[in-house]
Every structure is written in C-alpha cells, then in structure tokens.
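Appendix B. Chain record.
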Amino acid sequence: MEKTLLEKKYGLHIVNIKRLREGVDNNVYLIETDAYQQYVLRESKRTSLLQHNDDLLFETTAISFLHSRGIPVASVIPTKDTSTFFKHDSTFYVLFEYKPGISPQCSKDFSSAVPEAACYLAQIHNLTPPPHLPKRSRTVFTELERVMACKKTVEEKIEGGVGYVQEVEEVLNRATAYSNNTGFVHNDYRSGNILVNDGRVSAILDFDWICIGPCAKDIGLAIVEWSFPDNKTVPDQSIIKKFILHYNKNARHPADKATLQFWVSFACLSETATYLIDMLESSVYKKVQGSFMYQKYQYFNTHPELLL
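Structure tokens predicted for this chain:
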C-alpha cells in the first residue's frame, strides 16, 4: 500500500504502515500518523465477489447504522471527498478507526467472552434494517451457489463431491424457502472477529460479508466456530450451552433446537464450499472429507443432543 496514495485520499500524515494480517479475502494494515493516531486499513482481495460499488456501500452503511444503535463496531473513516471507500488498480480499500483489544482466543478465559458476544449478536438480529440500504449481491447462499455453479466439476474432480453436491442441494432448497426472522446477518461471527479489552467485548470486526437474510445462519455458524476450533476433536458443550442461553435470553426470536440443527448444518456446508471452491478455482482438487468444517458437519449430524 502506497503511503502517498493514502495521504492524498485521507489527508493524513502517515509515519508507518504495518501489515497486521494477510488472508484469502483481505490484507489488513495498521496505519500510524504523526499525530499519534492509529487506523486500520482493509485491502479487499476477493474482488470477483464485489460485483459493484453497492456491495461496499451496503457494508459501510450497515456499519454506520449498527454504530448508531450502540453495537461496538469500528467506525468507517471517510475519504476527503466523503466516500466510505476508494478503489485503486481494481482493488477496494476501506479505512476504519482503531479498536484496542485482543481475540478471545488469546485471553486468559476464552469462555468469559461468550455471554457478551452472544448478547451482541442477538442485538444485531433484533434491529430492523433501515429502508435506504443499497442492494448488495452477496447473500448467505452465495458460497453454496458457487458449488452449484460448477456442480459437474465438483462431482467429477473432487473426492466425495457427488454426495456433497446432494447435501448442498438439500440444504439450499430448504434454506431459500426459510422466511422466519430475517435481518442483518454478520455472516462470519467467529471468535477471531471479536476483540476483548479489560474483560469486555470492545469490537466486532469483519463485516465484509454482512447481508440481509435469515438470522439463524449467524447463530448456526457461531455455535460451531466458538465451540469447536480446528485443533479440537470434539466441541465444548459448555460453550454451546452458554452461547445459546445468552443469545436466546436477548433475542427477539429465540432459536429452537430444530432451527439450530438445520443452520449448523447449513453453516458447515457453506464454509466447506468456500474451502473447496477456492481451491478448485486454482485447479487444486481437495477431498470433501479434508475440510475441517465438513468434519464438524458430520459430527453435529451424529450428535444432535449437543444442541439440547
């Protein structure tokens, strides 16, 4: 990232740019100015899924709305011409305020963040999205639709692909007919996208996949990601119970067992799709069973009592 470009766009005097994270979707940088101010810059890499400016307009408008309703998000810093993002050489950039904190995974007591994180997710779902939101192309179904768009290749090139495509078709048909409790969906509500500071949730991050859809998708993914990290062989049932308890205590539409079971399956298959199709688009053909999220899908399917 060019320092002079950022200074021109935002009117800042930058003394240091440090890469914080390099990911599949984004690169993230810490920006430090001569006034001892800090910001976070996101460089979007998955430009094929940003079909037009409305995708970013939706995200940044939604973040501003959530901030106005007391949700601890990192505010978007506008450019000098008041735009909430800018594009350079086919890459999109968004500047955010810096939020202090660490991931719950790095804290002394991971489980202590669960009640507040679950409560904030419920608060997000309780909000009625404003009518002026731009339309965006991404939905909760996007990743599974990527599977169906290359169905034949998945079935022929990926070991286990035939059975996986059948599972995807089944959940897509049911999910697209689901009309209960639609609203803001963070779409990636994992512990790695939360910051805690002094024992409290200080920020909810990474809203680049936010959309309007069935809120139950968020709780399904959250249950899996918070309770069942990739380095574990079984989920932590105490985390599952704590997350569901505090979500349902604060949600306008509490999630019942049947809803949770379905959307846990949906979320796992969707995350599996991201892994498989990203690899496939690079001509790398992975086994379905090689996906951690597919293994979790199978585990939850054979242990429905976990969601009691």
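Further analysis of this model is presented in Appendix C.
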